Amino acid sequence: MDKKKIMAFVVWALVICGVVQQVRSDASDHRYKVGDDVPLYANKVGPFHNPSETYRYFDLPFCSSGPRKEKKEALGEVLNGDRLVTAPYKLDFLNDKDSETACKQKLTKEEVAQFRNAVSKDYYFQMYYDDLPIWGFLGKVDKEGKTDPSEYKYYLFKHLHFNVFYNKDRVIEITVQSDPNSVVDLTEDKDVDVEFTYTVKWKETEIPFEKRMEKYSHSSSLPHHLEIHWFSIINSCVTVLLLTGFLATILMRVLKNDFVKYAHDEESADDQEETGWKYIHGDVFRYPKHKSLLAAALGSGSQLFTLTIFIFLLALVGVFYPYNRGALFTALVVIYALTSGIAGYTAASFYCQLEGSNWVRNLLLTGSLFCGPLFLTFCFLNTVAIAYSATAALPFGTIVVIFLIWTLVTAPLLVLGGIAGKNSKAEFQAPCRTTKYPREIPQLPWYRKTLPQMAMAGFLPFSAIYIELYYIFASVWGHRIYTIYSILFIVFIILLIVTAFITVALTYFQLAAEDHEWWWRSFLCGGSTGLFIYGYCLYYYYARSDMSGFMQTSFFFGYMACICYGFFLMLGTIGFRASLFFVRHIYHSIKCE
């Protein structure tokens, strides 16, 4: 079996290396000669404050200088909402241009109104030049000295100034500025003639090609940003050390007293009535209700935990550098598909340990427990994106590719893992025999019920990651860049430790109160941090962001619900595993009848 595990690990490592190589190979490494055509691709436009609501560049009535050619996109780029098409501007290598005409057109009243609506919503554009991103706003609103919105003046920028930096035969950096003095008045509904022009200036730089992406990550690595991140970690560590140390001291002292007391009771009076957690030793390993669902949840949680670890490994080796378009989505899809065997093996193995018989139904439940809600959410949100004609709407071909990956990779590996788990013949390690009839659980105060315990369990881990969450949200649902993956990994490890410890502590107090139904409680308490994160989503949306509109709102709360549900399953698995280890340990340390 050890050889099989080693071989499986080697295969996974090779596959992950393949993913790394594929993701890295997407980066441009072109060398150019003077006058070479370096294509400038227009990607998308959209309201600045609504990152999910993006449209194709030519959905707005921009003119074109020639036939439009769409760039072939990889899977991750399509999932990211990228739709690259040749822009009307030509930036030949080392060719300076001064007020060159890109194209001319006559805007109708309807097109003027379309542009005016875009300018009023702070629309921005994004382009790519040799895989380097550039942005700019489409226009400006003149509100100076005006209180009535009907008096605002709307202007469309018609001149762009490109500054391109090169090192020998390679493009290193590009910036773009709009000329605030070269504008078209869009305030009135009337036909307007527009001539889009641009200027190109080439400048030499000493920055090597290998470091051209560093400027995008510098914004998240500025000293004051790093100070905040390190303050976040130190704050989390101090809080965690104090609270966990406090709990550990109490727990160890109480457990030591319990062991001494129970040992003394065994020596002095065997017929003495037992109390506390030893009293329920005949019930503590009684299999839980809905054991198939619990096994499926543990399988899905184990898979998501493995997926998270692999994503962190790729991030730490530098795969997800800024604007490596679609790299994260490609890695998520591929690694999730390849790790489905872990879900199948864990779920089927645990289900069979609990003497479950219908392992096929358990496997179907495992496969649909996370993918089912994700699929339903995707169907709804993709329909919304199609109604808005947004780039977030996946083309039919991409949906077919994802379905084929699920059918040909995810499902077979899930079944193979399930068969391996069923045939593992592992037995449930219970130090105490379970009695025939369960003891009645005594009446417990309200704060020992499931919901108050979940609130207590989720608060401490959430407080450890609270500060870092803002930067992650600002990156995923905004335009900030997040590249400090080492700090994020430390925060993740702290989250795991705190989740495991707080769940163990609450499990002990539950058993001490002679409540033996700890299985589901430990899972729910461990996963409750996911509910706190979703609560933070409400705070972030209304207090820290300027997002608005039905599409952006539905995308934000829809996909964050899926992410928080994934955290619930993953952290619930961590909490349950820690509690199971703890319960086995304490009951193994005493003499059970």
UniProtKB/TrEMBL annotation:
InterPro entries: EMP70 (IPR004240), MFS_trans_sf (IPR036259)
Membrane topology of the entry: Multi-pass membrane protein
Superkingdom as given in the UniProt entry: Eukaryota
Signal peptide residues on this chain, from the entry's feature table: 1-25
Any Gene Ontology biological process: protein localization to membrane
The keyword Membrane appears for this protein: yes
UniProt cross-references to Pfam families, sorted A to Z: EMP70
Main location class: membrane
GO cellular component: endosome membrane; Golgi membrane
Compartment annotation: Endosome membrane; Golgi apparatus membrane
SUPFAM superfamilies cross-referenced by the UniProt entry: MFS general substrate transporter (SSF103473)
The keyword Acetylation is assigned to this record: no
Keywords: Endosome, Golgi apparatus, Membrane, Signal, Transmembrane, Transmembrane helix
Transmembrane regions: 228-251, 293-321, 327-351, 363-388, 394-416, 454-473, 485-511, 523-542, 554-576
Family per similarity comment: Belongs to the nonaspanin (TM9SF) (TC 9.A.2) family.
Protein name: Transmembrane 9 superfamily member
Organism this protein belongs to: Erythroxylum novogranatense
